[in-house]
From TrEMBL:
Name of the encoding gene: LOC111130700
Organism: Crassostrea virginica (Eastern oyster)
UniProt GO molecular function: hydrolase activity
Calcineurin-like phosphoesterase domain segment(s): 22-230
Pfam families linked to this entry: Metallophos (PF00149)
Family matches, as InterPro entries: Calcineurin-like_PHP, Metallo-depent_PP-like, UPF0046_metallophosphoest
Superkingdom as given in the UniProt entry: Eukaryota
Protein name per Swiss-Prot or TrEMBL: UPF0046 protein C25E10.12-like
Signal sequence segment: none
């Protein structure tokens, strides 16, 4: 029997009779646990997976658990079983199997879900833009799909449409739900000079150019991401809801009700 998992909840916009409502269910970093979670995923209008469907380990350089084509079938089968009206998938750094295919081949192989790779889709008038890129790091040894240097990422974020309502990336922006014991800055000994909080065992590991783009240029209503398992949660900053739905450690989903005209 599948386990039961709880979820966090947030609301965007004013709730009144003049507004439409779109319930977004956000999951991320499920790392091949799909048979366990599929019956616990909350109901909603849109299901968004922001990367790391797969799990890349060192042994997979030599012995694959599944072929690349089989992994594509697993992704499609997972979304095919979900009842949500709209289904969106953005890749993560563990999804190395996707790098063997062109974007067009992936899209053709995933008819049950809308695959976004530096592209957008519209669901009931709400624009979702997805980009899989994560900053490259020497600390990441095996899972390097869709990773790039900082200047490349700045160009990627600069290409995001300015009328985006919901931004989906795999990586968090710097300083927002981005603590990491292994990938981040050197943890502060006292209060962090950047965020003003004490986190002596973890540093910030998000992307700084993404932070600039989100807060200064794109200004979406919501920004959905994952990647850093120990920082899962929901928060609001500068009138933007930020959602880190990394499932692997927190074992919870994020649900966001968007009210709009």
């Amino acid at each position: 029997m599948a386990n039961e998992y709880s979820h966090r909840h947030a609301v965007v916009g004013e709730q009144n009779d003049c507004c439409r409502k779109l319930r977004v269910v956000h999951i991320s970093d499920t790392h091949m646990e799909h048979d366990d979670i599929i019956h616990s995923i909350p109901e909603g209008d849109v299901i968004v997976h922001s990367g790391d469907f797969s799990k890349m380990r060192f042994k997979n350089f030599f012995f694959k658990d599944h072929s690349d084509s089989e992994m594509l079938r697993k992704v499609n089968s997972f979304f095919e079983q979900l009842p949500h009206r709209f289904k969106i998938f953005v890749a993560g750094n563990h999804d190395t199997f996707l790098t063997r295919f062109s974007k067009e081949e992936i899209t053709e192989s995933l008819p049950a879900v809308r695959y976004l790779q530096d592209s957008f889709t519209v669901c009931d008038g709400v624009k979702f833009y997805g980009s899989p890129w994560t900053i490259s790091s020497r600390k990441i040894k095996t899972s390097k799909a869709f990773t790039a240097a900082g200047e490349v990422l700045r160009e990627r974020w600069g290409a995001v449409d300015g009328d985006t309502d919901v931004l989906i990336t795999h990586t968090p922006p710097y300083g927002v739900l981005d603590y990491s014991r292994h990938l981040g800055d050197t943890p502060p000994k006292a209060v962090c000079q950047f965020c003003g909080k004490g986190h002596p065992d973890r540093g910030h590991a998000g992307c700084y150019s993404l932070r600039e783009a989100v807060l200064q240029t794109i200004r979406p209503k919501m920004h959905l991401f994952g990647h850093l398992h120990g920082s899962a949660g929901l928060t609001e900053q500068d009138d933007i809801i930020f959602s880190n739905a990394a499932f692997a450690s927190a074992r919870r989903f994020n649900v966001i009700d968007l009210y709009y005209k």
